[in-house]
Amino acid sequence: MKILLTGVTGYIAQRLLPELIENGHTVVCCVRDSNRFNLKKYDSPNISVIEVDFLKEDSLQFIPNDIELAYYLIHSMSTQSGNFGDLEETCAKNFKDRIERTNVRQVIYLSGISNSEELSKHLSSRKKVETLLSSEKYALTTLKAGIIVGSGSASFEIIRDLVEKLPIMVAPRWLKTKCQPIAIRNVIEFLIGVIDKNETFNKDYDIGGPDILTYKEMLLRFAKARGLKRRIGIVPVMSPTISSYWLYFITSTSYSLAKNLVNSMKVEVVCEPNDLASMLNINLLGYDRAIQLAFDKIEQNQVTSSWKDAQTSELFKSGFSKFVEVPTNGCFKDTRSLPLEDSLASLDKIWKIGGKTGWYYGTALWKLRGFIDQIFGGVGMRRGRRSDTEIFTGDALDFWRVMIADREERRLLLYAEMKLPGEAWLEFKIDKDNILTQTATFRPIGLYGRLYWYAVLPFHGFIFRGMINKLAATVPGHVENKAQN
């Protein structure tokens, strides 16, 4: 079957895509910028990529007419500008208008559980999108999930941050709210299982695991699974703003996403009973088992996707490709080169940089810079990296975004997503003569940008000199440095 997959750079779609290919389907992937999607990662002739922005109606002409089924996995909850409800409404309308003119027989939409009388802005938007997607031209199957538990999922990582960082928690009242978590493995099984299933046409189903828990119970059971003793005290008064900042500073989420999550966590998300799991012969996994499976993936370094990679900066609204080419005019540069005795070992070090590995030299200063960035509303160093050894174009890496990760070309290019009075790139490249060149490029904005460069220049000299020495595994006396303005 020929399938259109939207939201391809998102957490769910990156889990779903390999399963669709393994099941013999041909998949057309919709991305806003093809440079952000690494086709080599999947190594399959049954995947094609088209550039589509569902906010721009003209771009939808690239969707083939012979599509038989489409997944709608688009949401805008983490956007930092504009009204995400309006954005989701526009995307849904444009998607429907175009899909109705194709051969699509079924659209599968992953939404949120919305059974409470009072819904959050996020859940109200999801419910409205379901209404907008309904059509007489194709069958709509809607799956509604609450908390999704899996390695790299937003819910899992936020709970993990809270439990592992805070022995004692003073938490808001929403920790008493009930929810019905579901393992990511089961979510994918449902998304695959309803394909071309006539019984599910024009129907919606709540999907959840067998456990109904409060958020407090989820935190304590997570702690128990990790062998940690945790105490949680609930205070009667904690404003949504304070709760949002609490999540923002303790976990790796952005403030805008934290704010929307807090509003959603006030709403009970418990499934209405249905027979979909038995119809599809799906064995629902309990919360404890879902945690165990998630950590199995983490320990094996096999995290397929992370919500942090999908959470892109507003900087990229104008397109990912714009930042792939490093500018030369009007820039400050710090360029350092070293001959390598073992280029493969150095390349391995470059591919492991950041996250748990750190930055090889002055890591404490990198963390300090990340903390300062977080205070000013930036991403900070909290995102880490999805894998300790693998890295792909589009991945988040601490406060950087991976623009190019080409191991064959022996080149890694990073773009800074931190708060800056300008734009910054960091590049590592090993040439055919086994010379490692490390280049930091900064394009300042106005006088403040120039003052910023000169203010941090002494620290750059210290950090960048030490970093290239560690990457090259040589003694400082061999360094061939050159700093340019």
From TrEMBL:
It comes from the Bacteria. Residues 7-143 form the NAD(P)-binding domain. InterPro entries: DUF2867 (IPR021295), NAD(P)-bd_dom (IPR016040), NAD(P)-bd_dom_sf (IPR036291), NAD(P)-dependent_oxidoreduct (IPR051783). Signal peptide: none annotated. This is SDR family oxidoreductase. It comes from Belliella kenyensis.
